[in-house]
Amino acid sequence: MPVVNELIRIEDDGTISFGNYKLTEKSKLDNFEYKGDIYKVKTHDEITKLERNGLFVYESVPGTAVSHFAVDDTTVKFSVEGAKDAQVTLQLEDDCEYEVFVDGAAVGGMKTNLSGKLVVSVELNQDEAAQIKVTKR
Predict the structure, then answer these.
(1) Other CB atoms closer than 10 Å to residue 127's CB: what's the count?
(2) pLDDT value at residue 2
(3) Most CB atoms closer than 10 Å: which of 79, 90, 92, 105?
(4) What angle do CA 56, 133, 58 make, to 5 degrees?
(5) Residue 24 to residues 46, 47, 116: CA-CA distances in angstroms?
(6) Per residue in 28-59, is it b (16+ CB within 10 Å) or e — as a string?
(7) 75-81 and 130-136 as β-strands: parallel, antiparallel, unpaired?
(8) Distance (Å, rounded) from C-alpha 130 to C-alpha 115?
(9) How many CA within 13 A on the CB side of residue 15?
(10) pTM exceeding 0.90
(11) For the sheet containing 75-81, what is the strand order?
């Protein structure tokens, strides 16, 4: 999975891909329209962040490249790649239980905090994507 040189794009399957962890300088793209919403991405080697309509959606430390990011009422799924292990924070529903899968293996149930944030640590090998799926219980 290559980095997203244009910082954010819509894929042929209707999902979005964003982020470029190989950049050494901060880069951002604002006012990207997707399904009636406005997205903003900030990315470089230290952090990748995605906002929708001014609200937090995704953040990783250090920076990552995310592909085929898809969200519905109960599930968030995407592939993530980075130069080293990353801490990924997702904005989900407040105070809910979720099942988290990494590369198809269940890593356990997690509960969001009162602000709806869920933090997942992902072991990454450079140039190899990890498949993440988070499903509401």
Answers:
(1) 10
(2) 67
(3) 90
(4) 15
(5) 8, 10, 30
(6) ebeebeeeeeebbbbbbbebbbbbbeeeebbb
(7) antiparallel
(8) 26
(9) 14
(10) yes
(11) 8-10, 16-18, 65-71, 75-81, 130-136, 97-102, 105-111
